[in-house]
Please model this.
Amino acid sequence: MKRRAWYLPWLLPVGLLLAWQAATASGLLSNHILPTLSAVASAGYRLALTGELFQDIWVSTARAAVGFAIGGAIGFALGLLNGMSAGASRLFDSTVQMLRNIPHLALIPLVILWFGIDEQAKIFLVAFGVFFPIYVNTYHGVRTVDAGLIEMGRVYGLKRGALFRQIVFPGALPSILVGVRYALGFTWLTLIVAETISAQSGIGYMTMNAREFLQTDVVVLGILIYALLGKAADIVTVALERYYLAWHPAFRRAPA
Amino acid sequence: MTVLAFPRGYLRPDERVVADAGARVTGDTGVSIRISRLAKRFDEKEVLADVSLDIEPGQFVAIVGHSGCGKSTLLRLVAGLEVPNSGEIRIADRPVAGQVVDTRIMFQDARLLPWRKVLANVGIGQSGGWRATAMQALARVGLEDRAEDWPLVLSGGQKQRVALARALVSQPKLMLLDEPLGALDALTRLEMQRLVEEVWQQQGFTAILVTHDVGEAVAMADRVVVLKNGRIEFVETISHPRPRRRGDAELAEIEGRILARLMQR
Model:
């Protein structure tokens, strides 16, 4: 295998940062529109010193994790159920498909009425957003497991539980992981919007608060942190794919 | 998803084979099969009509015919994967109900689980200390050095050898071969035929081979059943001694005779 330059994926983001710094520092781009990179960095440093930054990152991450766990678990369970039982599929699937077409962010006014602006509201929205990609991909994954393999498993004496563990689940896993990847994207998207509209902590709150005081540097800092958190979540999924799909030729040399 | 239940203790090891010429059987042996007046329809299409066939324990029977003649359906009925519309199949004198214990199938595609290493594929459905027996079976087909490889890196012939090892692990009493060599290249195919024949001679299971290759059937089987339009056209007994040499004049003559009957309108 030819060794590829490890820095290749970083070339573009680092180049963009440099271009940004050059444009803002030289006055080509007004600081009212975009602060300099160094100003953003020093805002980050300042907030890190007071501990506020880490507090907000922690709060947002916890919300993302809890919402993801709840929505993901329900989506996964229902996806499995409907994938394996034609009866359950007939009962639930069309309802789920109907709900799926509601943009979940359109529920924000209702969610605020139900839960106020407390934690539940944000967790509910994240869970709602995560549910569908996990559900759809689990369902699809289970439905498309090679029927020949299942038949083989039965002939070779596998009972229901073993059949699921050894054939159905691993067969559906590539599709499920695609769902996880989409769901992680939804998680951050939902959280940003929810925190921006109504929150008393978290990165979304931090940026909205900074807007009130015209602290453009903190606003940009918040956006960059979201990008980094999103990337971190993606790295985790890629690692999962590499581990669990090591048998799959498409993942054996997955690009990082 | 329904997993069919099947009765336990279906076959007992005290059944002894009625060994025919060239006593080849050691210890545990094959089962007898009695198929009577079997019929199977899919919707309105009649696939099998009034098929009756007796197979002695340890016998190697090949079923040949045009594609769509019902030969694979017959095999699936014996395996309990399909339910007949009428008639009966008895294995070791018991009616087939659901999945049949001590029966293994080799499919046309190897059907290995791509997410399990070769050795774990061979040991599927086995419990307690399966690694050693799986390794033995793998060694039997000459692939012990590929135990820790993923199935997807194997060639077609190697995959079928792994599938054969997987079938052998449980010491089956009945082996159903659903065109397992159909997709292999000519040379690999001859090697596999020899390998299957060898393990059959050593283990003494009853074997039913479905194939569209009359030459293969004649080379391997004790009896060749010719199926045409869902009925048994005729049965050819081949008493030619083993090991059989490919290109043998007598075998070629039998092959020609069967082919001629098959091609008749």
Notes: Chain A touches chain B at residues 84-85, 146, 148-149, 151-160, 162-163, 166-167, 170-171, 173, 245-249 (CB under 8 Å). The CA atoms of residues 202 and 225 of chain A lie 11 Å apart. The two ends of chain A are 15 Å apart (CA to CA).
